[in-house]
Amino acid sequence: xxxxxxxxxxxxxxxxxxxxxxxxxxxxxxxxxxxxxxxxxxxxxxxxxxxxxxxxxxxxxxxxxxxxxxxxxxxxxxxxxxxxxxxxxxxxxxxxxxxxxxxxxxxxxxxxxxxxxxxxxxxxxxxxxxxxxxxxxxxxxxxxxxxxxxxxxxxxxxxxxxxxxxxxxxxxxxxxxxxxxxxxxxxxxxxxxxxxxxxxxxxxxxxxxxxxxxxxxxxxxxxxxxxxxxxxxxxxxxxxxxxxxxxxxxxxxxxxxxxxxxxxxxxxxxxxxxxxxxxxxxxxxxxxxxxxxxxxxxxxxxxxxxxxxxxxxxxxxxxxxxxxxxxxxxxxxxxxxxxxxxxxxxxxxxxxxxxxxxxxxxxxxxxxxxxxxxxxxxxxxxxxxxxxxxxxxxxxxxxxxxxxxxxxxxxxxxxxxxxxxxxxxxxxxxxxxxxxxxxxxxxxxxxxxxxxxxxxxxxxxxxxxxxxxxxxxxxxxxxx
Length: 480
Hints:
Strand content: 35-45%
Radius of gyration: 37 Å
Number of strands: 20
Number of domains: 3
Helix content: 25-40%
C-alpha cells in the first residue's frame, strides 16, 4: 500500500506545482507581461516604467496577477519527500531489509492481498499465512484470504499473485472448497489452447519418418509454495492427445493416444501478455508406410484429478463432472512421399572456391586404447575411442550444413557415424573404435541424402560428395 501512496503523493506534489503556474489571475489591474509591474493609473503608456518593454503589442500586458508560487513549491517539495519515503519503505519491505509487513494490522494485509499488484499482494498473503501458522491470527483470517484468492483468480483481466495459488490449492487439499468453487478455479485456470506442432512446416514426410505432435494451454496458476511436500499444493491435471487419421482412399488408421498427469506446481507462469503455453503434451509417431495424403484430427483433452484424501466424500462427483474436463480439436493434413522426392540440395565441393580440405573443421581431441584388467592378469574388455570435433568451415555460406556420415576406415574394417550439423555449428563427439587395431585410421565425410533429410528444416543445404578429413592413429593398448 505504501508504494501506491508514495506514487500518489508524488503525483499530488507535481499537480500542486503545475497549478501554481496555470491557475487564474487575481484582480483587474493591467501588468507588464515581462516584469509583472502594475500599470494601474497610467494612461496608454508607450513603455513599461520598470523594465522599458514596448507596450504597444497586444500581448505585452496581462490583466490581474497570479499569487507567488513559493508556498506551492514548498507543498510540492513536502509531497515529493513523503512519496520518496513511502516508496523507499516499500522497497525495503520487498527486499527484506525492513520487513514492514511484520508491523501491519491484519485488515491492512487483507486489503493489500486483494488490491495490490501480484508481487506485493503475494507478500501480504504470505504474511497472513505466517501469522495463522504461528497462532497470532485465527483460521478465520485464512478463510478470508481463501475468499480473496478465489475472487482474484476469477478476475482474469488482472495478474494473479503467485502465493495465492498456494492458498487455493492448499484449501482444495484441506477439503474446504465446494465442487462449484473447484469448477470455477478449473475453468479460469486453463485457457488459450494452441496446437504447438503438427509436424514439419512443409507437412511432407517419407514412410516411417518420426512426426512430433504437441498441443498446450496457458495456465493461470503460481510459482510459489511454502510446503515441503509438493503434493499438498498440487493441482493435478491429466492430459492426453488423440490422433485419428484417414487416407484419401478412405481407409482409417488406428487411433494414436498419449496421456500423462502433470501437477500445476511452482514454476507455472501466468504473467499477462505471454503467449507461451505452460502445460503441453507431446506425441511421437511414425508416418504411415503407404504413400498418399492423410487427413486427421488431433484431440487435446484436459481433466482435473483429485489427490486430496479429505475430498473423498465428493470423489464420485469430481470424477463424473463434465465441467472438470476440457477438450480441444485441431485439424491436421500431411502427405507421405518417397524419400527421393524430398529435396535437400547437396553442394558439390568441387564447385566451391575453397580448397576441398578447408571446407570442414575437424579436430582430434583424444584417441585412447585401454585394456581394463582384473588382478593385473585377465583382460576384461578393451576401451577404444576417438574424441573428435567437426563442423562446417565458417568461410562457407551460413546456410550450408552437413548431412551424411563420418566414416572411419582401416583396411577392410569401417565404421559410419550419421551426422547432421547445422550451419557454422561445431559438434564434439566420442566415437567408439571397437574392432579397430592399433595404427592409422582414415577419417572422411560422405554425404547421404537420407541422413540429410532428417534435419531438412534446420539445414537447408548440405555439403555433398566425399571429403577426406584426416588420419588418426590408434595407439597401442595400455593396461588400467
